[in-house]
Amino acid sequence: MAFPVIGVIAPEIAISHLQQAGSRLGIEALASSEKLSADELISFGEKCQLIVVEPSMISLGAIKVAEQNGIQIYPTSKVLEAIATIEFSAKSAEQFVIIAARSAHAQHAIWPISLQSKELLISPAPGVGEEQGVTIAVSVLNLLAELSLVGGVELIVDANDYQKLQAMNWLMPRSAFATEINCITNYFEQYLRAVLDLPLGNTNFLDNHVITGSIKTDPNSDDYRPYLHLMARNPKLKFDQRLKMVGLAGDNLEEILTEIIHAQQYYSGEIED
């Protein structure tokens, strides 16, 4: 059995993540960051076993036409049609972020729930007890099953009412950065496993906690100079300039939070050491 070739139609950032994950698995990923018509999508799909798309880049009509011509696409048109009937709530100050994956054989995987507030994402979400966490996880997995979703998805819900869905993200989930830092299997590898119907990977944490935060360029400096101080202060810090984020994993939540906030403030020029 030969290794499959997959197609990726997404922004460059998502392509980079998926190609990196695919390379580790020995899977070739043909990519396009252009919006394609139905005919272009069919032509592109003829070179691949399947295509994963960022839905905002391809019209539902084009996906339907391609599927009718035998092209396998995720998320499918049926999933996208079902999601179009869901009523989304307005963005709240604090949100729970849940990322999950589901394969064609209904194997599922879910990562610890995160709390998103201001410019920070903390995982596991502080204050979420085991019972509440299980309730939310079961609700999410039931939704994926009802949609017959194959692949991965990031769900953003109101932290005060998890039944209020605020957004769904596919190939551009910012919370995926935390899985790269602190999980046995990161989101993008899991996404590929799911659409290829490979056994899904373990989503357990390596350390007890992980926090990621957005970083802003110091108007009086650049994006490179802060590295000297921040990497020397804490060599465990992880950066992703593609996403403009910094992250850190560890076992002491208060210490991690202090380090991330310091990194954000120093990087933006708000403070100097």
What's the layout of helices and strands?
Elements: E1 5-9, H1 12-25, E2 28-32, H2 38-45, E3 50-53, H3 60-68, E4 73-74, H4 77-83, E5 94-102, E6 108-110, E7 114-117, E8 120-123, H5 130-147, E9 151-158, E10 161-169, H6 176-182, H7 187-195, E11 209-214, H8 226-233, E12 238-240, E13 245-250, H9 253-268
Parallel strand pairs: 1-2, 1-3, 3-4
Antiparallel strand pairs: 5-6, 5-7, 5-9, 7-8, 8-11, 9-10, 11-13, 12-13
Helix pairs in contact: 2-3
Descriptive tags:
single chain; 273 residues; alpha+beta; Rossmann fold; D-amino Acid Aminotransferase, Chain A, domain 1; 9-stranded antiparallel β-sheet; 9 helices; 25% strand; globular
Distance between the termini: 57 Å
Examine the secondary-structure arrangement and name the CATH architecture of the largest domain: 2-Layer Sandwich
Sequence of secondary-structure elements: EHEHEHEHEEEEHEEHHEHEEH
The CATH homologous superfamily of the largest domain is termed ATP-grasp fold, B domain
Segments where pLDDT lies below 50 for 5+ residues? none
Helix content range: 25-40%
**Largest sheet geometry:** 9 strands, antiparallel
* CATH top-level class of the largest domain: Alpha Beta
Q: What's the average pLDDT?
A: 96
Computed over alpha carbons, the radius of gyration is 19 Å
How much beta, percentage-wise? 15-25%
Count of helical stretches: 9
Q: Could you say which overall geometry the principal axes of the C-alpha atoms support? A: globular
Number of domains: 3
From the helix content, strand content and strand pairing, which structural class follows? alpha+beta
CATH topology of the largest domain: D-amino Acid Aminotransferase, Chain A, domain 1
Extended strand count: 13
